[in-house]
Design brief:
By secondary structure, the chain is α+β, with helices and mostly antiparallel strands. It has a single domain (3-113), classed as Alpha-Beta Complex (Aspartate Aminotransferase, domain 1), CATH 3.90.1150.30. Helix content is 34%, strand content 27%. It has helices spanning 3-12, 57-63, 93-109, 113-119, and strands spanning 16-21, 25-30, 33-40, 49-54, 69-71, 82-85. It has a six-stranded antiparallel sheet with strand order 1-2-3-4-6-5. A hairpin with an 8-residue loop joins strand 3 and strand 4. It is globular and about 40 Å long. The two termini are 26 Å apart.
Length: 121
């Protein structure tokens, strides 16, 4: 998944907004809350985007030990269940897209009922 692919996919999800912050990271939000962060993978010569996303406890436990994945820097260290996929060793593009969609849904569920209704969620 290239940066353009990542941004196009996240932008196609409902009620999203995009901002570049935190050292050139592409941050996607729903209702003002972050659901995905994309940036360049460390030590990678490829056009590969490292993507961090919120996930369930079970997905966190499975992916934290998978090759090419790790607890998301800064976020997971604060007790949040966020994973970063920094290469495609064990997660395909389709699987990554599914995780991003699930993150979007998890974050949207945490919004107030009123805000969800305003956003059409």
């Amino acid at each position: 998944m290239t940066l353009d692919d990542y941004n196009a996919f996240c932008g196609a999800l409902k009620a999203t907004s995009h901002v570049v912050q935190w050292g050139n990271s592409h941050v996607w939000k729903v209702g003002g809350k972050v659901f995905a962060v994309g940036g360049w993978a460390k030590d990678s010569d490829e056009d590969v985007v490292a993507v961090s996303f919120k996930c369930s406890d079970i997905v966190f436990e499975v992916l934290r030990a998978a090759p090419g994945c790790q607890p998301a820097p800064y976020l997971a260290s604060r007790g949040m269940t966020w994973i970063q996929c920094y290469d495609r060793s064990s997660v395909t593009t389709e699987e990554l897209q599914g995780h991003i969609e699930a993150s979007h849904a998890l974050v949207a569920q945490g919004l107030t009922k009123k805000l969800r209704a305003e956003l059409g969620l």
